[in-house]
Structure formats: structure tokens, C-alpha cells
Amino acid sequence: xxxxxxxxxxxxxxxxxxxxxxxxxxxxxxxxxxxxxxxxxxxxxxxxxxxxxxxxxxxxxxxxxxxxxxxxxxxxxxxxxxxxxxxxxxxxxxxxxxxxxxxxxxxxxxxxxxxxxxxxxxxxxxxxxxxxxxxxxxxxxxxxxxxxxxxxxxxxxxxxxxxxxxxxxxxxxxxxxxxxxxxxxxxxxxxxxxxxxxxxxxxxxxxxxxxxxxxxxxxxxxxxxxxxxxx
Length: 231
Hints:
Helix content: over 70%
Radius of gyration: 19 Å
Structural class: mainly alpha
Largest sheet: none
């Protein structure tokens, strides 16, 4: 009886809002450290560690937050690729031109200048694309953060809408090095990826593929000197 009470108390503690607030505080510290240049090479591994520990403490599996395909691999790949291409077209022909006109500047992608015409850096960038960016960021922002916010607020449709917006804002701000245009553009992209995640049974495989396809197209355009604002 004592053992059961203790276990119940531990479970309640792990599910408490205080644990969640501690997680969010750690995330905020990682963001601040990254802003001040104290994070190397990228903040995603640190955010992923927080997410992993959170799930482990609460007895939640990655599969429980959507780390699975949508019905079949063929459907998952088709939807993911189509979504990735659609996001890229939206960026190039709609959101980016409008935001550049609104803020008076293009996204600051100068950190990727070395990819232009350089096969070595293209390969390195694509490797990071499918690991840290597509895989890592989707696990963190859609798989962990979006579900964590919803767990605290409840699981009503309105709660998912709030989680979609907040997690997408965090995703956008994580690209602060790209300036206000880049932050806003990535916030919009994050909302699309989150909406797709929800629309297809909360399968993370689809936004992972979509994210990877979009970034791959970005780097290919940069490599061939065809990306707007990159020489």
C-alpha cells in the first residue's frame, strides 16, 4: 500500500505543471545561450535532450507523440514530398516576397553563402538538413513541444490551436540569425508543418519529410546560384 502511494506520488510529480515549467525554463536558457553564442554547434541537440528526458520521466514514448508513418510508407512519402514542394513554392513566390517588402529585407542567409557552387558544403548542408533540421527540429517542435503545451492546457481543439501557434512561434524565433523576415517566414512554415502533423493523424514522418524536402530544395537553389538574395 505504501509502495503504491509512493509510486502514485512520483507519477503525479512527473506529470505536474512544475516539471513542465522547469522544462520550459531550460528551453528558454538554451535559447538565450544560443543568442549569446554559447551553444555549439547547434541548439537542437540540447532541445532534443530536454524533450527526451521529459518523455522518459513521464513514461511517454516517441511513438505516442507521432513518431510513426501515416498508414503506409508510400502515402507518407507522397504527402511529405508534396507538402515540402508546396512550402518551397509558397516561400519563393508568396511569403518571402511579401515579407521582404514589408520588412525591407530578405532573410539573412549569408551563413550559407559557402554552399553556392561548392559540392563539399552542399553535401555537409544536406547531411545536416536530414538530421538536425528535418529530423531533430520536427521531433522537438512538433513531437515534443506542441504535445507538451497541449498536455498542460487540455486536449480540446482550441488547445491544439494554441499549441500550434506557440510551438510555431518558438520554431520561428529559433531562426533569429536570419533576421525578422527569416523568423516570420519560418513561423509561417512551422504553422503549416504543425497543421499537416495534425491533419494526418499526428504522424511526425510527414512533416519530417516535408521539412527535409523544403530545405533540400533551398540548398540546391543556393548551390546553383538561383536562390533569391544569394549570389
